[in-house]
UniProtKB/TrEMBL annotation:
Name of the protein in question: Inosine-5'-monophosphate dehydrogenase
Stored SMART domains: CBS
Keyword Plastid belongs to the record: no
Lineage: Bacteria, Bacillati, Actinomycetota, Actinomycetes, Kitasatosporales
Keyword vocabulary terms for this entry: CBS domain
InterPro entries in alphabetical order: BON_dom, CBS_dom, CBS_dom_sf, Diverse_CBS-Domain, UCP036990_CBS_BON
All residue ranges annotated as the CBS domain in the record: 10-69, 90-146
Pfam families, A to Z: BON, CBS
Entry-linked PANTHER family: CBS DOMAIN-CONTAINING PROTEIN CBSX3, MITOCHONDRIAL (PTHR43080), OS02G0818000 PROTEIN (PTHR43080:SF29)
Domain BON residue range list: 143-212
Length: 219
């Protein structure tokens, strides 16, 4: 099976600002480029951090007497409210991925770090792209026929070496339904698990019989 890589989904033209960019320069860049975040890089193109619209909001929230009635912000929000340059406003260090990472690897890092985007760097740690949660979700737009072909040819045939007529595959809106029979009962969860790992699969429902119960659990 071939999993889609970050390099296939990322945006290669990344909007960047230098570490010394002023608050107004950053806001202007976000507006002119119509993006919700920019990468902060050093002079050599290495990523230092990310500035998103949420990083800039503490500055707005710090203005006006009305906000004094609200709960006190966390210390990091207070620091950003007083920051004036990119290096003071950015979320750092930058959370980065590699172009050859799979979608699953990138998604796990986003989840663990609780970020909405990853900067993508090459072997020299130079910025080469950016990938967002929306980019990763694009795999679920794969054509149903492409998903069915990959399951039939790569999973059932290439990996499990099943006979072409052993299991039939139906895919509708990314939802996979399997009918047929396999030789051993222990193979059923393996088939289901491998099908779930195919890019674009939303759900797998199996209606598989077996010839031999090798699990010792009975029916």
């Amino acid at each position: 099976m071939r999993h889609r890589e970050v390099g296939e989904l990322m945006t290669r033209e990344v909007v960047t600002v230098p570490r010394g960019a002023t608050f107004k320069d950053i806001v202007r860049t976000l507006g002119e480029q119509r993006v919700s975040a920019v990468a902060v890089t050093d002079d050599d193109g290495h990523p230092l951090g990310v500035i998103s619209e949420s990083d800039l909001l503490p500055k707005t929230a710090d203005q006006g007497d009305w906000f004094s009635s609200l709960p006190h912000p966390d210390p990091w929000e207070s620091d950003k409210a007083t920051g004036t340059r990119a290096e003071e406003l950015m979320s750092a260090p930058a959370v980065c991925a590699r172009p050859d990472w799979t979608v699953a690897e990138a998604a796990r890092l986003m989840e663990s770090q609780q970020v909405k985007r990853l900067l993508v760097v090459d072997d020299a740690d130079l910025l080469v792209g950016i990938v967002t949660r929306g980019d990763l979700l694009r795999i679920f737009l794969r054509d149903d026929d492409a998903i069915r072909h990959e399951i039939t040819a790569d999973v059932l045939g290439g990996t499990l070496h099943l006979e072409p007529t052993a299991v039939s595959v139906e895919v509708v809106d990314g939802q996979v339904t399997l009918h047929g029979a396999v030789r051993f009962r222990s193979l059923v969860p393996v088939v289901e698990r491998l099908c779930r790992t195919v890019d674009g699969v939303v759900r797998v429902t199996e209606h598989l019989a077996w010839e031999t119960d090798d699990t010792g659990t009975g029916r």
